[in-house]
Amino acid sequence: MNEFDLTGKVAVVTGAGQGIGEGIAKSMAGAGATVIVASRSKDKIERVAEEIQSAGGKALAVPADVTDRSALVNLAETAISTFGGLHCWVNNAGGSPVRAALNELPDEEWGACIDLNLTAVWKGSVIAFEYMKEGGSIIQISSPAGDRAVPGSVHYGAAKAAVNSLTKTLSLEFAPNVTVNGISPGYIPTEVMMKALQTDEEALAEMAQARIPLKRLGKPKDIGSAAIYLASEAGSWVTGQTLIVAGGI
After folding, report:
1. What is the rounded CA–CA span in Å between residue 132 and residue 134?
2. Residue from 196, 189, 183, 242 nearest 216 by CA
3. Active-site residue among 131, 156, 187, 229?
4. Which pLDDT band holds residue 199 (cuts at 50, 70, 90)?
5. Listing from the earlier edge strand, what are the strands of the sheet with 242-245?
6. How far apart are CA 128 and CA 116, in angstroms?
7. What is the pLDDT of residue 80?
8. What is the mean pLDDT of residues 237-248?
9. Structure pTM?
10. Whether the Cβ atoms of residue 14 and residue 90 lie closer than 8 Å to each other
11. Cα 5 to Cα 236: distance, rounded to the nearest angstrom
12. pLDDT in tens, 87-118
């Protein structure tokens, strides 16, 4: 199990104030990493950081708007100045609460979605690479929406498809010292997902029994475990891949 040990590693996780980001941050801290917990919501990331510390882990809450380049630079510089390095960067912040047919989607919603779900991932990846002096791992949180038709969420699906392409290209450009991979989570009943799908956890659970081969919804820690693998020595010969973690669908 030493190959999965992240002791001595410093990780930045964006969008870590709740849901999947929180699960990733807590999982990586549990594997020994020091985690910078980032999000626009100061109160949420402070709660996550405190819970990590209470469990014996190391974490620091740093408020950040990932659409602001200076905020991303500050995350990287904080990792180095406070903890001595940057070894893993997880681009998790994203999502879109707006559902609309393509011909009805306002221009500003398209722009906002691309800025958050694609441009911020590109900027975060490039900045992380520039600060990873000893090499490291960059992980993009994608979505099955990037691989299929998603009526009502074409802006989000297009952004995630682009993220999958970005992952492949950056994995070649950043080799051999930095790996770049993605994780595509299935149905996990986070607040963001239920709002986007306009549903509730009970309805999602019924869907899981009918459609998901493993007969359950996902949990944030399922994505956290995948992130540990990709960030650790165990996953050091994997790059340019987007791992589907979705119970078989």
Report:
1. 6
2. 189
3. 156
4. confident
5. 58-63, 34-39, 10-13, 88-91, 136-141, 178-185, 242-245
6. 17
7. 98
8. 97
9. 0.95
10. yes
11. 12
12. 999 999 999 888 888 889 999 999 999 999 99
Helix axes 42-54, 19-30, angle to 10 degrees: 30
Q: Which residues contact 45 (CB under 8 A, 6 or more apart)?
A: 16, 17, 37, 38, 39, 61, 62, 63
For residue 46, CA distances in Å to 11, 43, 51, 154, 218 come to 16, 5, 9, 33, 25
Place of tokens 């559902």: 99
Confidence at 192, pLDDT banded by 50, 70, 90: confident
What does the mean pLDDT of the chain come to? 95
Please name which of 12, 144, 137 lies closest in space to residue 73, comparing C-alpha atoms: 12
The continuous run of DSSP H or E covering 107 comes out as helix 107-114
Q: Is 156 labeled as catalytic in the residue annotation?
A: yes
The token duo for 61 is 């809450």
